[in-house]
Amino acid sequence: MSNPEARPDEVVCEGRDAAGVELMSPREVPLGGPRAMLVRRTLPQRHRSLIGAWCFLDHYGPDPVDRTGGMTVAPHPHTGLQTVSWLFEGEVEHRDSVGSRAMVRPGEVNLMTAGRGISHSEVSTDSTTVLHGAQLWVALPDESRHTDPGFQHYAPAQVTGAGWRGRVFLGSLLGDTSPVATFTPLLGAELVLDPGATLHLPVDASFEHGVLVDLGSVSVGGLDAKVADLAYVPPGTAQIALVAGDDGCRILVLGGPPFGESIVMWWNFVGRSHEEVAGYRAEWQAQITDPRTGEVVPDGRQVAEGRFGVVPDQPLGPIPAPVLPNARLRERR
């Protein structure tokens, strides 16, 4: 998914520990278009930008497509990250410049590695009536961020216990392990708890964790969280106490060791300096601009392959990059 903000903030991300569980509330961001499907964003925030390598989290829906228009995200670029798509309802078609064409369906994870550069599109299908899911980004560490772009798909089996059931799509949890490859240790899982159920969730104490509430409500380590809240659990916790509310809950559990690097994140790019990010932007604009007219090509055919490649058989025109802010993007300190 693209960051749809016309004036996206530049974010210098630095991992920071907290003394205990903290609750982060989302802000609403319109995806654009005449009816503007809204997403609820909990990462990044000014006081906390990463949880492990997780650096971006949008939660959306359930939205009736006949009212919102669904998801139509035309070809756009990424660098230095992996995108993770997870749906609760609906269906989205993913296409990218390495030739991948896959459906995002509930309970199945799509992970795209941008590495040195990729472009992709995401469009909800005609059969989708309700769209509901989460879009997440993972920052790549310095030694891996120029890797080849790629794509992985995985449908995890359901694991169950007393009063709960879940699917582990990244990393290991509750006796199950995902085969999806990542460049830093990560955890990603969906859990559903019955009304009033308690789960003492064993986790890796070297990780910091985030618990995103999708439905219902849940107490996370004694802190009550509602829909779209993100509860942060610092490293040093070997067991997270989860207690579902009266209506039960559905949550995403995310985690990873503190990232240990600062990154500069602007629009759809993750880099390490102003010059690098500005360079990515310039390359994308050159790739989608007709040199004869100086205008962005309107019919979905990028002028040149370039760093980001071309999304094949996609009639939607590419998304131009926003204008860089007047201030210099802060470099890694």
From TrEMBL:
CDD domains from the UniProt entry: cupin_pirin_C, cupin_pirin_N
Q: Which InterPro entries match?
A: Pirin, Pirin_C_dom, Pirin_N_dom, RmlC-like_jellyroll, RmlC_Cupin_sf
Tell me where on the tree of life, at the top rank, the source sits.
Bacteria
Location of the Pirin C-terminal domain: 190-286
Signal peptide segment: none
User: Where does the record place the Pirin N-terminal domain?
Assistant: 39-138
Family membership noted in the UniProt record: Belongs to the pirin family.
Descriptive protein name:
Pirin family protein
Q: Which organism is it from?
A: Nocardioides vastitatis
